[in-house]
Give the backbone structure.
Amino acid sequence: MRKPVPWVIAGLLLIIALTVFVMRTLPVPRTTARETPTTRETSTALPDDRREERLRMVELQIRARGVKDPRVLAAMEKVPRHEFVPADVLDEAYNDYPLPIGYGQTISQPYIVAVMTELLKLKPGDKALEIGTGSGYQAAILAEITDKVYSIEIIPQLAERARATLDRMGYHSVVTRHGDGYWGWQEHAPFDAIIVTAAPDHVPQPLLQQLADGGRMVIPVGPPGGYQSLWLITREGDEYRNFNWGGVRFVPLTRLE
Ligand code: SAH
Protein backbone atom coordinates (compact mmCIF):
# COMPACT_ATOMS: atom_id res chain seq x y z
CA MET A 1 0.00 0.00 0.00
CA ARG A 2 3.01 2.36 -0.23
CA LYS A 3 3.08 2.47 -3.99
CA PRO A 4 0.15 4.90 -4.61
CA VAL A 5 1.82 7.77 -2.71
CA PRO A 6 4.29 8.82 -5.45
CA TRP A 7 1.42 8.60 -7.94
CA VAL A 8 -0.72 10.88 -5.82
CA ILE A 9 2.13 13.39 -5.66
CA ALA A 10 2.76 13.05 -9.40
CA GLY A 11 -0.93 13.54 -10.05
CA LEU A 12 -1.06 16.64 -7.87
CA LEU A 13 2.02 18.09 -9.57
CA LEU A 14 0.44 17.44 -12.95
CA ILE A 15 -2.75 19.24 -11.91
CA ILE A 16 -0.74 22.20 -10.59
CA ALA A 17 1.35 22.33 -13.78
CA LEU A 18 -1.77 22.18 -15.95
CA THR A 19 -3.49 24.90 -13.92
CA VAL A 20 -0.46 27.20 -14.20
CA PHE A 21 -0.23 26.47 -17.93
CA VAL A 22 -3.89 27.20 -18.56
CA MET A 23 -3.77 30.39 -16.47
CA ARG A 24 -0.79 31.68 -18.43
CA THR A 25 -2.13 30.90 -21.88
CA LEU A 26 -5.82 31.64 -21.69
CA PRO A 27 -6.96 35.26 -21.89
CA VAL A 28 -8.50 35.35 -18.43
CA PRO A 29 -11.27 37.93 -18.12
CA ARG A 30 -10.04 40.90 -16.15
CA THR A 31 -12.53 40.57 -13.35
CA THR A 32 -11.50 36.95 -12.79
CA ALA A 33 -7.82 37.83 -12.81
CA ARG A 34 -8.46 40.57 -10.31
CA GLU A 35 -10.30 38.35 -7.92
CA THR A 36 -7.84 35.45 -8.08
CA PRO A 37 -6.63 35.16 -4.49
CA THR A 38 -3.48 33.20 -5.40
CA THR A 39 -1.89 36.13 -7.26
CA ARG A 40 1.79 36.26 -6.34
CA GLU A 41 2.64 39.63 -7.79
CA THR A 42 4.45 41.88 -5.39
CA SER A 43 2.99 45.33 -5.08
CA THR A 44 4.57 48.05 -7.21
CA ALA A 45 4.39 51.81 -7.05
CA LEU A 46 1.82 51.86 -9.86
CA PRO A 47 -1.56 50.17 -9.68
CA ASP A 48 -1.03 47.31 -12.06
CA ASP A 49 -3.52 44.50 -12.32
CA ARG A 50 -3.09 43.84 -16.03
CA ARG A 51 0.60 42.99 -16.28
CA GLU A 52 0.05 39.56 -17.79
CA GLU A 53 -2.08 41.05 -20.55
CA ARG A 54 0.58 43.66 -21.21
CA LEU A 55 3.42 41.13 -21.37
CA ARG A 56 1.37 39.15 -23.86
CA MET A 57 0.81 42.30 -25.93
CA VAL A 58 4.57 42.94 -26.08
CA GLU A 59 5.30 39.32 -26.95
CA LEU A 60 2.67 38.80 -29.65
CA GLN A 61 2.22 42.26 -31.16
CA ILE A 62 5.64 43.82 -30.76
CA ARG A 63 8.49 41.32 -30.30
CA ALA A 64 6.95 38.90 -32.79
CA ARG A 65 6.89 41.67 -35.42
CA GLY A 66 10.58 42.41 -35.05
CA VAL A 67 10.96 45.23 -32.52
CA LYS A 68 14.24 44.51 -30.71
CA ASP A 69 15.43 47.59 -28.77
CA PRO A 70 15.51 46.32 -25.16
CA ARG A 71 14.75 49.81 -23.80
CA VAL A 72 11.60 50.04 -25.92
CA LEU A 73 10.46 46.53 -25.00
CA ALA A 74 11.04 47.17 -21.28
CA ALA A 75 9.12 50.47 -21.45
CA MET A 76 6.19 48.85 -23.26
CA GLU A 77 6.13 46.09 -20.65
CA LYS A 78 6.14 48.58 -17.82
CA VAL A 79 3.78 51.46 -18.71
CA PRO A 80 0.18 50.54 -17.77
CA ARG A 81 -1.50 51.47 -21.06
CA HIS A 82 -4.95 50.90 -19.55
CA GLU A 83 -4.42 53.87 -17.24
CA PHE A 84 -4.18 56.15 -20.29
CA VAL A 85 -7.39 55.14 -22.11
CA PRO A 86 -10.96 56.31 -21.40
CA ALA A 87 -13.20 54.10 -19.25
CA ASP A 88 -15.44 53.02 -22.14
CA VAL A 89 -12.55 51.28 -23.95
CA LEU A 90 -10.73 50.04 -20.85
CA ASP A 91 -11.19 46.39 -21.78
CA GLU A 92 -9.57 46.99 -25.17
CA ALA A 93 -6.48 48.77 -23.83
CA TYR A 94 -4.09 45.96 -24.83
CA ASN A 95 -5.68 45.12 -28.18
CA ASP A 96 -3.86 45.39 -31.49
CA TYR A 97 -5.42 48.65 -32.74
CA PRO A 98 -5.71 52.37 -31.95
CA LEU A 99 -8.43 53.53 -29.55
CA PRO A 100 -10.52 56.71 -29.37
CA ILE A 101 -9.51 59.12 -26.60
CA GLY A 102 -12.20 61.76 -27.25
CA TYR A 103 -12.25 64.99 -29.29
CA GLY A 104 -11.87 62.94 -32.49
CA GLN A 105 -8.35 61.82 -31.45
CA THR A 106 -6.80 58.39 -30.90
CA ILE A 107 -4.10 56.66 -28.88
CA SER A 108 -1.92 54.82 -31.43
CA GLN A 109 -1.82 51.06 -31.84
CA PRO A 110 0.78 49.60 -29.41
CA TYR A 111 2.93 48.26 -32.27
CA ILE A 112 3.14 51.70 -33.91
CA VAL A 113 4.15 53.28 -30.58
CA ALA A 114 6.91 50.68 -30.29
CA VAL A 115 8.13 51.10 -33.90
CA MET A 116 8.24 54.90 -33.65
CA THR A 117 10.08 54.77 -30.33
CA GLU A 118 12.58 52.25 -31.70
CA LEU A 119 13.24 54.43 -34.77
CA LEU A 120 14.11 57.32 -32.39
CA LYS A 121 17.07 55.29 -30.99
CA LEU A 122 16.41 57.00 -27.67
CA LYS A 123 18.86 56.54 -24.82
CA PRO A 124 19.04 57.83 -21.24
CA GLY A 125 20.01 61.50 -21.12
CA ASP A 126 18.59 62.31 -24.57
CA LYS A 127 16.24 65.26 -24.82
CA ALA A 128 12.99 64.32 -26.55
CA LEU A 129 10.12 66.39 -27.95
CA GLU A 130 6.70 64.94 -28.71
CA ILE A 131 4.10 66.75 -30.83
CA GLY A 132 0.59 65.51 -29.92
CA THR A 133 0.46 64.50 -26.24
CA GLY A 134 -3.03 63.01 -26.66
CA SER A 135 -3.49 60.53 -23.82
CA GLY A 136 0.06 60.95 -22.51
CA TYR A 137 0.88 57.29 -23.19
CA GLN A 138 3.65 57.86 -25.74
CA ALA A 139 5.16 60.51 -23.46
CA ALA A 140 5.22 57.98 -20.60
CA ILE A 141 6.98 55.44 -22.85
CA LEU A 142 9.63 58.06 -23.68
CA ALA A 143 9.92 58.98 -19.99
CA GLU A 144 10.80 55.37 -19.14
CA ILE A 145 13.90 55.77 -21.34
CA THR A 146 14.98 59.36 -20.66
CA ASP A 147 14.08 61.92 -18.02
CA LYS A 148 14.08 64.82 -20.48
CA VAL A 149 10.72 64.65 -22.25
CA TYR A 150 8.75 67.64 -23.57
CA SER A 151 5.30 67.25 -25.09
CA ILE A 152 2.88 69.68 -26.77
CA GLU A 153 -0.87 69.18 -27.28
CA ILE A 154 -3.18 71.45 -29.26
CA ILE A 155 -6.53 70.46 -27.68
CA PRO A 156 -6.65 72.10 -24.23
CA GLN A 157 -8.91 69.45 -22.66
CA LEU A 158 -6.58 66.65 -23.79
CA ALA A 159 -3.52 68.59 -22.63
CA GLU A 160 -5.10 68.97 -19.21
CA ARG A 161 -6.21 65.36 -18.95
CA ALA A 162 -2.84 64.00 -20.08
CA ARG A 163 -1.09 66.16 -17.47
CA ALA A 164 -3.37 64.75 -14.77
CA THR A 165 -2.76 61.16 -15.94
CA LEU A 166 1.01 61.63 -16.13
CA ASP A 167 1.02 63.07 -12.61
CA ARG A 168 -1.22 60.31 -11.26
CA MET A 169 1.11 57.70 -12.75
CA GLY A 170 4.22 59.40 -11.39
CA TYR A 171 5.61 60.77 -14.67
CA HIS A 172 6.42 64.15 -13.14
CA SER A 173 9.55 64.61 -15.24
CA VAL A 174 7.51 65.00 -18.45
CA VAL A 175 7.09 68.68 -19.28
CA THR A 176 3.81 69.39 -21.08
CA ARG A 177 2.13 72.40 -22.55
CA HIS A 178 -0.89 73.39 -24.60
CA GLY A 179 -0.08 74.85 -28.00
CA ASP A 180 0.56 74.32 -31.70
CA GLY A 181 3.46 71.89 -31.98
CA TYR A 182 4.13 72.95 -35.58
CA TRP A 183 6.49 75.54 -34.11
CA GLY A 184 8.31 73.08 -31.86
CA TRP A 185 9.59 74.30 -28.48
CA GLN A 186 12.45 76.70 -29.22
CA GLU A 187 13.15 77.40 -25.55
CA HIS A 188 14.26 73.81 -24.94
CA ALA A 189 15.85 73.08 -28.33
CA PRO A 190 17.90 71.36 -29.64
CA PHE A 191 16.32 67.92 -29.27
CA ASP A 192 18.05 64.57 -29.77
CA ALA A 193 14.71 63.06 -30.69
CA ILE A 194 11.46 64.50 -32.05
CA ILE A 195 8.35 62.36 -32.41
CA VAL A 196 5.28 63.69 -34.18
CA THR A 197 2.12 61.68 -33.49
CA ALA A 198 -0.27 63.59 -35.76
CA ALA A 199 0.24 63.84 -39.52
CA PRO A 200 1.12 67.10 -41.30
CA ASP A 201 1.18 67.27 -45.12
CA HIS A 202 4.78 68.52 -45.01
CA VAL A 203 7.63 68.39 -42.50
CA PRO A 204 7.48 71.53 -40.34
CA GLN A 205 10.64 73.59 -40.88
CA PRO A 206 10.87 74.65 -37.18
CA LEU A 207 11.11 70.98 -36.15
CA LEU A 208 13.98 70.36 -38.60
CA GLN A 209 15.76 73.39 -37.17
CA GLN A 210 15.26 72.26 -33.56
CA LEU A 211 16.75 68.82 -34.22
CA ALA A 212 20.22 68.43 -32.68
CA ASP A 213 23.21 67.43 -34.77
CA GLY A 214 22.93 63.64 -34.83
CA GLY A 215 19.26 63.91 -33.81
CA ARG A 216 16.40 61.74 -35.08
CA MET A 217 12.86 62.76 -35.98
CA VAL A 218 10.01 60.32 -36.60
CA ILE A 219 7.04 61.82 -38.39
CA PRO A 220 4.08 60.62 -40.46
CA VAL A 221 3.68 62.82 -43.54
CA GLY A 222 0.84 62.73 -46.02
CA PRO A 223 -2.66 63.86 -46.90
CA PRO A 224 -5.06 64.33 -43.97
CA GLY A 225 -7.61 61.55 -43.63
CA GLY A 226 -5.67 59.17 -45.88
CA TYR A 227 -2.57 57.04 -45.50
CA GLN A 228 0.76 58.65 -44.73
CA SER A 229 4.37 57.55 -44.90
CA LEU A 230 6.27 57.23 -41.65
CA TRP A 231 9.61 59.00 -42.07
CA LEU A 232 12.78 58.78 -40.01
CA ILE A 233 14.79 61.96 -40.56
CA THR A 234 18.36 61.97 -39.26
CA ARG A 235 20.34 65.18 -38.99
CA GLU A 236 24.09 65.26 -39.60
CA GLY A 237 25.35 68.83 -39.45
CA ASP A 238 23.19 70.61 -41.98
CA GLU A 239 22.41 67.42 -43.89
CA TYR A 240 19.14 65.55 -43.37
CA ARG A 241 18.80 61.90 -44.35
CA ASN A 242 15.32 60.46 -44.90
CA PHE A 243 14.18 56.88 -44.47
CA ASN A 244 10.64 55.83 -45.38
CA TRP A 245 9.47 53.14 -42.93
CA GLY A 246 6.16 52.48 -44.65
CA GLY A 247 2.45 53.30 -44.64
CA VAL A 248 0.62 54.41 -41.50
CA ARG A 249 -2.61 56.17 -40.57
CA PHE A 250 -2.62 59.09 -38.19
CA VAL A 251 -5.05 61.84 -37.26
CA PRO A 252 -4.13 65.11 -39.01
CA LEU A 253 -1.83 67.68 -37.48
CA THR A 254 -4.13 70.64 -36.98
CA ARG A 255 -3.12 74.28 -36.63
CA LEU A 256 -4.06 77.07 -34.28
CA GLU A 257 -5.46 79.94 -36.30
N1 SAH B 1 0.84 60.44 -28.70
C1 SAH B 1 -0.56 60.35 -28.39
C2 SAH B 1 -1.39 60.14 -29.64
C3 SAH B 1 -2.31 61.25 -29.79
S1 SAH B 1 -3.15 61.40 -31.34
C4 SAH B 1 -0.83 59.27 -27.36
O1 SAH B 1 0.10 58.56 -26.96
O2 SAH B 1 -1.97 59.15 -26.91
C5 SAH B 1 -2.47 62.90 -31.92
C6 SAH B 1 -2.61 64.11 -31.04
O3 SAH B 1 -2.00 65.20 -31.70
C7 SAH B 1 -4.05 64.52 -30.76
O4 SAH B 1 -4.25 64.59 -29.40
C8 SAH B 1 -4.15 65.90 -31.41
O5 SAH B 1 -4.99 66.78 -30.72
C9 SAH B 1 -2.71 66.36 -31.38
N2 SAH B 1 -2.36 67.41 -32.33
C10 SAH B 1 -2.83 67.60 -33.58
N3 SAH B 1 -2.25 68.67 -34.15
C11 SAH B 1 -1.39 69.19 -33.22
C12 SAH B 1 -0.50 70.31 -33.20
N4 SAH B 1 -0.38 71.14 -34.23
N5 SAH B 1 0.23 70.51 -32.09
C13 SAH B 1 0.11 69.70 -31.00
N6 SAH B 1 -0.72 68.63 -30.96
C14 SAH B 1 -1.46 68.37 -32.06
